[in-house]
Structures are given as structure tokens and as C-alpha cells.
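request received
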Amino acid sequence: MDARTAQETPETAIQAVLDDWLDAFHQGDVERIMTHYTADVRSFDAVTALQFRGREDYAAHWKACMDFCSGEPVGEFDQVEIECDGDLAFAHMLMRCGMVGEDGRENSGWMRYTVCMRRDGNAWRIAHEHVSTPFDMNTSAVLFDLTP
Amino acid sequence: MDARTAQETPETAIQAVLDDWLDAFHQGDVERIMTHYTADVRSFDAVTALQFRGREDYAAHWKACMDFCSGEPVGEFDQVEIECDGDLAFAHMLMRCGMVGEDGRENSGWMRYTVCMRRDGNAWRIAHEHVSTPFDMNTSAVLFDLTP
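response:
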């Protein structure tokens, strides 16, 4: 048993999935991002539609988002909390999300990110996720400027 | 063993929590709503702030929302999906949410609702929830008019 195996717990395995997801996002690698979802994933994404169902539909949405945000993706997790029992887990965190444009200026904001995961053999995959930015009750404006 | 006990599974127990939460919401009964959260609940609500931590802070936010929406609350769940294993569960659904004003007109829209639950003894309680409405990438307007 090497050091890595000795230290691996469900929580560290899930953190590794989140880290790889974030790294793939930085690389703009939608194919690698999609390996972290179950085939029947149900996503409540921050933009466009109430929901996306299935890896194929969700991949098409990811590609559309990456095309829309033509700059270099930037992302950062904060206050990640993970809970798991048996073959189920959930994690919730804040996520700074945006891009650096061709002029070198960063356009990003803090969002909320929830993932609900299912273990399939040795792999933890995202069966459901929910991403959003809150809005102001009085003005209905999206609150892009909130910070942790 | 009576018929109810014989039929109770984690899924039916969780559905009963969601049903009671929704009934309490219809009654505007914040105290009863709050019984369904853990003391350390972390909420990503649809409005106002990135997050709320702890039952006390979240109750204050619920009361502020109920005061803001002075009409009769209306709510409806659709496409509820529940998964559980051991002492952990998650559920995700669409939720029509709004109010009927004093003029009798309903002002509501479809949102997304995710709950992450933990079993404490016999009680399933919400340790994390995420509520939101998506926005339009091009205009940044909140999409209040989407339907399932």
C-alpha cells in the first residue's frame, strides 16, 4: 500500500474529482469535464434553462458556454464542504468564475456550487449539480458583485 | 407493524419532510419550516446573499422574505427525484414559487430546488439547500418565465 492509497478516503477522492474538474475548466477541456458526470446527470446550471438532462445535452450546453466566454477561463473554489456516506456524497462551495479577455482584464464573480455525487465502482461521479448567482428581491438584478 | 410503518422507506420519509416543508410554506409558518433544517444548515438561497449559515441566521432571512412577499404563499413541486444511502440523501426538483396578492392575482415563477439531507436518529433534516432562478448569459436578466 503506497502513501497515496493509505491516505485516500471518500472525502479525498471527491476533493480530487473537484480539483480535476477545476483544472479541466481552466484548460477549457469540456471532454475531460464531462468524464466527471454520470450518464443520467441532471444539472441546474446558472444560465439559459431550468435544467439539462443527460451527459450529451449537458456537454452541448458546456460547449455553448465555452464558446460564449471566449477568453481564458478562471475559476477558484472557496469554503468547500464535503459529506459522504455509503455510495452517496454531496459537496457545496463558493466558486469564483469568469474569464480573462484578450485585453488581459478579468471579468469574474462569486457564485454558489453544489454537487451531488454517486459512487460507481471506484469512481465518484456528479449525478446532480446546481450552480447559481443570487438576485436582489427589490430590483430583480443579478448580484454579480458579492464576495465571501 | 401497521401499514404506514411497513411502507416507510428513507425515500418516503424524505418525501414526507418535503411535503410538510411545502405545507408549512403555504401556511407562512416559518417556525415549522425551520424544524426541517439542521442547526448547522448552510443555505444558498435564491436572493440577497451568497450564503446563510446556521438555523438562527436562516430563520431571520426566511422571516424577511415572508414579510417582503406579503401575499398568500403559493408553491408546487415538480419532477422530484430522491436518492439516499446510509444516513445521507439528496433530492432535486423544480418548484413554482410566489404569492397571490390582495388583488387575487398570482405572481409566481419556476425555480430549481436542491436539498442535501442528513439523518439524525429517525429524522431526516436539511443540512444544505440551494434555490435559484437561472439568468440569460447575453442580457444578465433573471429568467422568471421559464416553464418545465
